[in-house]
Amino acid sequence: MSSNPSTGVTTAFLFPGQGGFDGEALRRAKERHPQIGRVFERLDAVTEELYARRISEVLFGERKADLRDLLDNDPWASQVAIYGAGLAAYEILAAQGATPDVLAGHSLGEITALVAAGAFSVEDGVRIVAQRVAVIERQGGVDGRMVALAASAERTRKLLELVDEPLLAVATENHDEQTVVSGPAKILDRVVAIAGQLDVGAIEIDTPFPFHTPALAPAAPEFAAYVRKLDQHPLNRPVYSPILQRYYEPGDVLADLLAEHFTRPVRFAAAVRHLRESGAEVFVEAGGRAALSKLVAKVTDGSEVRSLPTLALTGGRLALDGTLEALREAGLAAPERGGLAELLAPSVPSDVFAAYWSERGHMVLELVRTELDAFRKSAEAERAEPESAVEAAPETAPAAPSASSASEPRPEEYDRERLFDELRTLYAEALEYPEDVFEDEVQLEAELGVDSVKQVELLSRVSSRYGLPPRESGFRLATYNTMGKITDFVLQQMNDQGAHAPASATG
């Protein structure tokens, strides 16, 4: 897979950094999307190991988690929460069939992007985030802050020149009217005061430490040494770095590049423009709040780019719902539950069906086409058979029926017990199950684990073997969820159509 897609980029997923956590939105989404619980269970194993606390208990306990409280009381939890929310949002989107052409992260979000692309395991991603906090704390916490100024990067640099402090730095270039400055707290107070005199607005960023500042240089080597010990894997999707201003390449040593993040700025606006020039038309923020989606809207103002948030509340509604609707309408996500999902897998959660259909839907369609073609040929052969028999018949009285044909029952005499035995044998051989597990009332999916797609395949075999007519449009697979119900259905169809059973139901 190309690490640098020069063309074909339509959808970009963005992962937020500092401030990218909305506890209430995450709680609401967790009630409907099992991916959140599964992701945080994996995070729990590591946070319990490192901090003797489960991050799930911090975020989903009786007391609602607020980002400000996390920053004040548990800096590590604020960072893991941002990482976990981003990864959970990505898993939800993927389960709904949304497939990005490229991933990108804002500061901390770059770690999330790399994990989403398979560079590190989910668990090692937590370790990297935790180590990022730990090495800074071992440097004395670097008494500093981050402040967003309502000014361009060029104007902000000129402002910093007035202060002349080597530890002050432009940390992020978000858009033409917002630049974030990072540095010592007392020096930043002077920056904010000067900005006020120049009518430049200033807002403090929710972060436990200053990032992307020369003050963090001493912490970088220790961090890189730690990450080098973790397993690095090839990326399964392109990841563009707003810090490096390029795509990650196969030969990159990620430990060293992630350590550079400590002191290098995030040029987010330039990254968005680059992705836009590459063809990106849809930017989806995979994570909490809606900061990045708003930044994208600012950077691409005047274009037809769509910028969509996920784990944020807009007008009291979870933004994820509207984003999934928009992606479905654009053909960038699997259809909402109903239609095929309702017909083929009524008992399967919608996200599971969407993920399955995204990965294997083309295989199912190909199987259906093959079965329909075989059925059509069989039906054509049956229609042609009587004509051939008439042409070949001698102009004499018909011969008396043989003993074997006389013993073959007419359709109305076809015995249910016999049909049940034949169907049980067919299913047992196809699934490699013992025949005795197929009792009359045993449920195929709930008790035997036969998924809906396999049931459709087997029912197609049955239809072809017994010459059944095409199923009506209102047919619901869920109605025929036991071997007994399937037997009754087939028997009814045979009697209605006068279909003859094959000579061998297992041949």
Give an account of the 3D structure.
By secondary structure, the chain is an alpha/beta fold. It has helices at residues 23-32, 34-51, 55-60, 67-73, 75-95, 109-116, 122-138, 153-163, 185-197, 220-228, 254-260, 268-277, 291-299, 319-329, 340-344, 350-392, 403-407, 416-431, 452-466, 483-497, and strands at 11-15, 102-105, 144-149, 169-175, 178-184, 202-204, 239-241, 246-247, 282-285, 306-308, 313-314, 317-318. The strands form 3 sheets. It has a 6-stranded mixed beta sheet, with helices on both faces. Strands 4-5-3-6 form a 4-stranded antiparallel beta sheet. A two-stranded antiparallel sheet has the order 11-12. Helix 1 packs across helix 2 (34-51) and helix 5 runs antiparallel to helix 7 (122-138).
In the sheet with the most strands, the strands line up as 8-7-2-1-9-10
What's the rounded overall pLDDT mean?
85
Give the quaternary arrangement of the chains: single chain
- Residue stretches low in confidence (pLDDT < 50, at least 5 long) are 387-412, 503-507
Helix share bin: 40-55%
Q: Tally the beta strands.
A: 12
Specify the overall morphology: elongated
How far do the termini sit from each other?
Answer: 44 Å
Structural class: alpha/beta
**Tally of helical runs:** 20
Approximate strand percentage: 5-15%
**Compute the gyration radius: what is it?**
31 Å
Largest sheet: 6 strands, mixed
